[in-house]
């Protein structure tokens, strides 16, 4: 599962654009991760310029 550090996230959308499964979306200015769709590939984690995402096992 991908965890979002809301105190760091700038909600820029970089992670959303690289997600191959479309598991990320901005809802009311907050980043939401769909746990049913996310395959925990980590592409979004590597794409985040602020390091606001991490893989939680």
Description of the molecule:
It is a single chain. With 57 residues, the protein is of the alpha+beta class. It has a single domain (2-55), classed as Alpha-Beta Plaits. Helices cover 18% and strands 25% of the residues. The chain contains two helices and four strands. It has helices spanning 14-18, 43-47, and strands at residues 2-4, 24-27, 30-33, 53-55. Strands 1-4 form a two-stranded antiparallel sheet. Strand 2 (24-27) and strand 3 form a beta hairpin. It is globular. The mean pLDDT is 95.
Helix-and-strand structural type: alpha+beta
**What fraction, in percent, of the residue positions are helical?**
10-25%
Strand tally is: 4
Number of helices: 2
> What's the number of structural domains?
1
Strand line-up of the largest beta sheet: 1-4
Give me the Rg, rounded.
10 Å
Explain the layout of strands and helices.
Layout (H helix, E strand, L loop, with lengths): L1 E3 L9 H5 L5 E4 L2 E4 L9 H5 L5 E3 L2
Antiparallel strand pairs: 1-4, 2-3
